[in-house]
Write a structure and sequence with these properties.
alpha+beta; 87 residues; 1 helix; four-stranded mixed β-sheet; Ubiquitin-like (UB roll); 6 strands; binds zinc ion
Length: 87
């Protein structure tokens, strides 16, 4: 089990909050956003720190999506931003 220690924002010296935020990933001008992902968020500037587990889990989905997006990009009038909703 993980410990319950709450990370502190080094920049603002504030305890971070475990809350839903949007995971964002950019590559080759394509942005992938995954809303409603839990992360430690700084109450001052809203900067999110995703846990390694979350990133490991999401990166597989995001990579698949980027491959699809890159293929789509070779066609004209394709979107360059993708939003994924995971339930
Ligand atoms: Zn901060």
């Amino acid at each position: 089990m993980k410990s319950n220690s709450i990370p502190t924002c080094v920049e603002h010296s504030q305890p971070k909050q475990w809350q839903l935020t949007t995971f964002e990933y950019d590559e080759d001008g394509i942005t992938v956003r995954v809303p409603n992902i839990y992360a430690w968020v700084c109450p001052e500037n809203g900067e999110a720190s995703f846990t390694a587990e979350t990133v490991d889990e999401l990166i597989l989905t995001v990579r698949d999506l980027l491959e699809t997006a890159k293929r789509a990009k070779s066609r004209r009038a394709s979107p360059n931003e993708f939003i994924v909703t995971l339930n």
